[in-house]
Every structure is written in C-alpha cells, then in structure tokens.
Design a protein that fits this description.
By secondary structure, the chain is mainly beta. The chain has a single domain, classed as Lipocalin. The chain is 12% helix and 34% strand. It has one helix and eight strands. It has one helix at residues 2-18, and strands spanning 35-41, 50-53, 58-60, 84-90, 93-99, 104-114, 117-120, 136-140. It has an eight-stranded antiparallel β-barrel. The chain is elongated.
C-alpha cells in the first residue's frame, strides 16, 4: 500500500511540476516618441534635421555626427556596435545615452509631447559639453 501511495504522490508531483504552461510574450513598453520627427524650430531648423526614435528605444539620424548606426531589423533587440545612441523616458524627461567603446555619456531633457508636436527643452546642442541650450521643436512626419 505504501508503494502505491508513494507512486501516486510522485505522479501528482511530476504532473504538477512538468505541465506545460502557456508562455506569455514579453511586452515591450510602447514609446510615445516612436517615429520620425523633423526639426521645425530651434537649433538646426534651417537644415531640416530629422530624428528617429525607434520603438525599441534607439535614436537614429539626428546624432549622425556621432556615428549612430541604423539597426538592422533582425538585430532590433540587440544593441548595435558602439557608438550608438539610445533613449529612455521617465515622466516628462527623456534621457539620451551615447554608448561609446569604453563609456556611456547621458544627458536628460524635459520634453512636451502634444500629438504630432514635440518640444525638447534645452536640446539645442546635445553632447556638446558647453553652454545652456534652447528648446527644439519637432513635428512628427512618420
């Protein structure tokens, strides 16, 4: 009798611990900034600079002078080789991080998002290591 109880308990434990559960997909948070934006006023407005915020929190084009890389579709969840720029959001602040070979330099700015209008306060010359910048206004184009 004790062998039957032992095997019954063992079977229940085995079934309990090894039952396949449906795996939930990890949901990346949605970035309200994701898309392509063009500068409409502020620093470099005459150049019609664009900035691309990817849905997976990388920044493309705007920092091309810092050699930001376009991220191939199959590597979207992996960081590209340095240097590259990423961003993160916290409340009404956007933090830009410049990833270099040996260090990460970050700057944080307040932003205001109103539909297809984005103002990043003090963003006129990021990563320039000097002076107080003025706000830059962007309009979403994609």
């Amino acid at each position: 009798m004790s062998k039957k109880v032992f095997y019954l308990v063992l079977a229940v434990i085995t079934v309990t611990f090894f039952t396949a559960c449906e795996r939930e997909e990890i949901q990346m948070p949605e970035s309200p900034l994701a898309g392509k934006w063009v500068v409409t006023s502020g620093y470099h407005a005459s150049d019609t600079d664009t900035i691309v915020f990817t849905k997976d929190f990388f920044v493309l084009q705007y920092f091309d002078y810092l050699l930001s890389y376009a991220i191939p579709q199959n590597l979207r969840l992996l960081p590209p080789p340095p240097p590259f720029v990423s961003y993160s959001l916290s409340g009404d602040n956007v933090k830009f991080s410049l990833h270099l070979e040996t260090e990460i330099i970050s700057e944080t700015y307040e932003y205001v998002l109103d539909g297809n209008s984005l103002i990043i306060k003090g963003f006129s010359n990021p990563f320039s290591f000097g002076g107080i910048g003025t706000g830059v206004h962007f309009t979403r184009i994609e």
